[in-house]
Each structure stands twice: as C-alpha cells, then as structure tokens.
C-alpha cells in the first residue's frame, strides 16, 4: 500500500453517527473478489471512553479460501449503535463493490448475516438505498440477501426452555424440539403459522417472546417459511466465524488497561486496529508464499511488511486533525 492511500475511508465526530471506518486496499480487493457470504458483528467493551456510553468495534468479515481463514473487510470504531452508525459502516463496504445498480447487487452479492439488532438491519437497508439511490417508497427485497443468526435464536430459545416459570421442566425438551421446527425450510407458510399457534396454545407464557421473533420486520430474516422470495443459498446461517475473529482481535491487543482521558479514543482504536491489520496481512503473506523459507523470498517479504507497517502507522499521524476536533467536541 502506497503512503498516499489512506486506510480511513469514512469518519465523523458528530453525535448522529460518530465513527471511524477502516479498510485497507487488501480488504477492499478481497471484498470485491470473495464469493462467500459475509457476517457482521460487534466487539463491545474493547474501547472505553468516559464521554460515550457505547463505543464498539464493528467488523464485517468473510471467509477467504486462499488463506483458509475468516478475514475482516471493514472495521469501524463506532461511538454509538444507532441505524445511522451502522449505515456509515455498511456504506464503506458497498463502495468496495463494482455493482452498477440494485439488480446487479441483488444477483451478485453473496449475502449478509447479522444478529437480531434492528439498528443493524435498518442501517444496512439505509446504506443500500443511499448507495444505489433507491427511494424510500420503493420496496427492497432485503430478505434475498440478509438474514439473522440462527445460533442467536437458538440461544434465546435455550434460555426460555430452561426457565421453569415459562416452560415446566417435564416439558422442556418437547418444547425445545417443537420450537426448533420453526427453522425448518420444509414448512409452508400455512403449516408454519399452524405450528406457531400450537406452541402459543401449549405454552401460553411464550406468546410475547415468540411474537417478537414473528414480527413482520424480523420473521422473514430467520424463518424460511416466511420468505416472500427465495433467499440466496450461500448466506451463512450464523455469525460464529465473525465472533471467533472478534476474539482474535481482542487477544491480539496489549493487555494493559487503557483509560487515559487525555488521549483521543479515535487514535487509540485506530492504533490497535492498524497493528492488528498488519498482523493479519503478515499472515496472508506467509500463506501466499509457498513454501516460506528464510531465504531471499522471506527477506523480501519482511521488508515489504516493514514498509507496510510504517505506512499504516503514518495514517495514524494523519488523524491528528481529527484528534483536535474530537477533543474539542468532547470537552
């Protein structure tokens, strides 16, 4: 990556959508080339700042067959979790692609899997409408390319079945097995609703819980029977890979607790993310060069990595202007 190319593709210090979105040239290239579906998840509590109640690091990632691991495509430090924060994050992702219009996007995009956050879902839709200039009144068949994490639903279901005040212990497993049938793609719309009514009749205390998932704004993104159009078959059913990547990100950071109010949170998150991105790229280089030997190719690779690291760190210095504005904004 040449020094004149920034890795900060979007940033804002406003209260509406405060964020710093990071994408290296490598991430952008892989986002354009990968055919596997994508996953989005957030790491909470990693960045702390006394001026903000909610600061999280949001990742969108996908599986790369070349190095056989999940890699980040966009990383955003977000000073909030509203639909506008997520919109800014997803806009950076959409700008990576070469789709010229919505039809090309719906046919070529491999799919996105997220948790049950309404803000995340709406932010994704807003980003698509903004990027492809789709008016608000025009229907958007989002269920074709977007779905909720199935594992998150199963975790919620497990908590309900273990609550003796909602489901009696002797019926715990029968309830669990029957509720899991809601995820079956073999159901028609009619048989699905019949099953849902049976569950609510047999277990009346789950009505509010089940109604939340059956809401028209959510149900079609988790239950196949509620789809109005066929979904992309390559969409991942869960966000497990991204959650694992988030764990790697946290373990890669220094363990020293950083809570100095004198230093901008933006620079803190950027430094940690840049160093981690460098380590990911180093892993890519090691896997691409086959075999890795401590000879000329290895030495050349290390020189390139040092240049890359210096370039990444130089981008941190370019954030000084943002730091001044952020400090003024926070003070």
Top keywords for this entry?
alpha/beta; 12% strand; globular; 331 residues
Uncertain residue ranges: 258-273, 284-298, 318-331
Which class best fits the helix and strand makeup? Answer: alpha/beta
Please tell me the total number of domains: 2
Strand order of the largest sheet: 1-2-5-4-3-6-7
The first-to-last residue Cα distance is 35 Å
Largest sheet: 7 strands, mixed
| Global mean pLDDT | 79
Helix content: 40-55%
What value does the Rg take, in angstroms? Answer: 22 Å
* Number of contiguous helices: 12
Order of helices and strands: EEHEEEHHEHEHHHHHHHH
Shape: globular
Instruction: Kindly state the number of beta strands.
Output: 7
Please report which band the strand proportion falls in: under 5%, 5-15%, 15-25%, 25-35%, 35-45% or over 45%. 5-15%
Overview of the molecule:
- 47% of the residues lie in helices and 12% in strands.
- The protein is α/β, with parallel strands linked by helices and 331 residues long.
- The chain has two domains: 234 residues, no CATH class; 77 residues, no CATH class.
- The chain has a seven-stranded mixed sheet, sandwiched between helices.
- The radius of gyration is 22 Å and the shape is globular.
- The C terminus is likely disordered.
Report a brief summary of the structure.
With 331 residues, this protein is of the alpha/beta class.
């Amino acid at each position: 990556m040449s020094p004149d190319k920034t890795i900060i593709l979007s940033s804002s210090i406003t209260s509406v959508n405060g964020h710093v979105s990071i994408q290296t040239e490598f991430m952008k290239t892989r986002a354009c080339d990968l055919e596997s579906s994508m996953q989005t998840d957030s790491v909470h509590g990693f960045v702390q700042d006394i001026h903000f109640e909610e600061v999280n690091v949001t990742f969108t990632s996908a599986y790369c067959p070349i190095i056989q691991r999940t890699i980040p495509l966009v990383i955003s430090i977000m000073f909030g979790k509203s639909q506008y924060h997520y919109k800014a994050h997803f806009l950076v992702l959409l700008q990576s692609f070469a789709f010229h219009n919505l039809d090309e996007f719906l046919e070529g995009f491999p799919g996105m899997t997220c948790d049950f956050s309404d803000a995340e879902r709406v932010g994704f839709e807003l980003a698509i409408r903004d990027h492809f200039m789709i008016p608000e009144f025009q229907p958007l068949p989002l269920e074709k390319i977007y779905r909720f994490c199935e594992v998150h639903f199963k975790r919620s279901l497990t908590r309900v079945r273990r609550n003796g005040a909602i489901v009696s212990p002797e019926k715990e497993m029968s309830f669990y097995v029957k509720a899991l049938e809601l995820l079956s793609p073999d159901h028609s719309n009619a048989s699905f609703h019949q099953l849902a009514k049976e569950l609510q009749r047999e277990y009346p205390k789950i009505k509010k819980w089940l109604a939340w998932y059956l809401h028209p704004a959510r149900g079609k993104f988790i239950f196949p029977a509620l789809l109005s159009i066929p979904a992309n078959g390559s969409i991942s059913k869960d966000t497990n890979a991204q959650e694992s990547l988030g764990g790697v990100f946290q373990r890669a950071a220094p363990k020293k607790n950083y809570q100095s109010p004198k230093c901008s949170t933006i620079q803190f998150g950027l430094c940690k993310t840049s160093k981690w991105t460098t380590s990911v790229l180093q892993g890519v280089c090691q896997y691409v060069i086959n075999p890795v030997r401590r000879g000329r190719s290895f030495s050349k690779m290390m020189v390139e990595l040092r240049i890359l690291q210096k370039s990444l760190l130089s981008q941190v210095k370019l954030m000084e202007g943002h730091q001044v504005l952020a400090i003024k904004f926070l003070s």
